[in-house]
Amino acid sequence: MIRFRKAHTGTAESAILENLDALYGFAMSLTRNPTDAEDLVQEACLRAIKGLAHNGIRSNPKVWLFTILRNVWINEWRRRASGPEFIFLEKARAEGGPLHECLSDERERPEDWLERNMASGRLRSALSGLPAAFREVVVLRYFEGFSYREIATILGCPAGTVMSRLNRARAELRSMLDEENTSLILRRKRGSG
Amino acid sequence: MDKHIFEQIPLYLDDELQEGERLAVETHVKGCHDCRAALDRERELIAAIRRARPLYSAPETLRGRVTRLLRQSNPPERFGSYRALIAASAFLVLASAGWWLSAATLFSKDRPSLVNVAVDHHVRYLQGRLPLEVFSDSPEAISAWFAGKLRFNFRLPDYPQGPKPYHVEGARLVGFKDDYAAYVVYRLNGHPISLLVTSNAVAQPSGGEEIPWEGLRFHFQSVAGWKVLTWSDDGLTYALVSNLEERGQASCVVCHQDERVFRGLHSSREPM
């Protein structure tokens, strides 16, 4: 069994620091607030360091760290986190996320860029409207690339539950986007009429 | 429409089906308009979700807080001279025992597979327990360092020409079966990737899911959460270990940055 032990140089550093951006992203999706996300990641890292001393890490360190962060959130943090501010788009803009990448792509026409980012913005908005249980499986699967089995480990549930939540999450997202598209078309028709 | 196939479409797109099941879906959708349309719709939605991924960077304040936590958790230990002597003696005894155990393992008949050795080396490298012997971001310099040290002819690829999305970090020799193998570390978008190379007379790619492409047969498997690709080409056998997304195809960019080649490999595993 592969195990990480505190006694080995660089153990905690490599596991935690390499996954810090991903952990912060996941914490943002849970807390929806940068200050809470920072505090949550710090608390999770503290637990990870303590756990490392006693048990070591089994299997993939990223799965292990996400599991700790999610447990801290569920067991202790959720009830004291602040309001439901969801700032995916703004944060991505501020930190050189996808919008910045789009701007730097010289081959893309401005109207295509606008269209694409409006679509991404609508999707992020729809994602923020999902129930937390659906949102987190979407984030873990499509943003972080975890397999169903890895997500099941992180959430502490059967892989079948992950599958059904993902199905429902995708259905919800599609429904929200379809509604959004319909109202957009109606607004355009009214505007041109 | 086949209800069973229809229900498997999300699993197919999420790469959660076995090869036989994947083939069944692919065969069915070729002749079923409704399932094909459902597949396209789902794939479009998933691609849109991925495109909307916000790329976060942990703020510097958080990075500083975590770094301080890590530093506090590893305070420098202070030994008196007597305790230091005991510790040093114990270390020598353990090191000797370790050497004998390693030698016994290396030359025993019950040898670990290439995949397990590759994963073990990758983890040990991440733990800081597998120091590299040569550090360079130049594939030529790494190849030159290996010259004369291995029983097989090994040269690192150096393409595409121009900027690459990855870089070589360094390399070392590692023991494998009765010989040395080449161990090379790359980094792609901050993710370390390990490449273990030996002669195909010593090890063959095996296990996991077989992915034929362009005359080569890639074997994909997940070991303890790590994505491992093994294949043989031109007399050598390779094992690539990463924690990259999907099936680790992204790690193929290390050698197949050429868009045409990479797309070909990628599309062979991508949903239809």
Rounded to the nearest angstrom, the distance between the terminal CA atoms of chain B is: 17 Å
Number of helices of chain A: 10
Calculate Rg of chain B over CA atoms: 23 Å
Structural class of chain A: mainly alpha
Order of helices and strands of chain A: EHHHEHHHHHHH
Estimate the mean pLDDT confidence of chain B.
75
Distance between the termini of chain A: 68 Å
Strand order of the largest sheet of chain A: 1-2
Uncertain residue ranges of chain A: 1-9, 82-108
Proportion of strand residues of chain B: 15-25%
Query: What is the overall silhouette of chain B?
Result: globular
Estimated structural class of chain B:
alpha+beta
Q: Give the helix level of chain A as a range of percent.
A: over 70%
What is the oligomeric state here?
heterodimer
How much helix, percentage-wise, in residues of chain B?
A: 40-55%
The Cα radius of gyration of chain A reads 19 Å
Please outline the major beta sheet of chain A. Answer: 2 strands, antiparallel
Number of helices of chain B: 8
The coarse silhouette of chain A is elongated
Number of beta strands of chain A: 2
> How many β-strand stretches of chain B?
8
Task: Walk me through the structure.
The complex is a heterodimer of chains A (193) and B (272). Chain A is mainly alpha-helical. Chain A has helices at 11-18, 20-31, 34-55, 61-77, 88-94, 98-104, 110-128, 132-143, 148-155, 159-192, and strands at residues 3-4, 57-58. The N and C termini of chain A lie far apart (68 Å). Chain B has an eight-stranded antiparallel beta sheet with strand order 1-2-3-4-8-7-6-5, sandwiched between helices. In chain B, helix 2 packs across helix 3. Chain B is globular and about 60 Å long.
Key phrases:
heterodimer; A: mainly alpha; disordered N terminus; B: alpha+beta; eight-stranded antiparallel β-sheet; 8 helices; 22% strand; globular
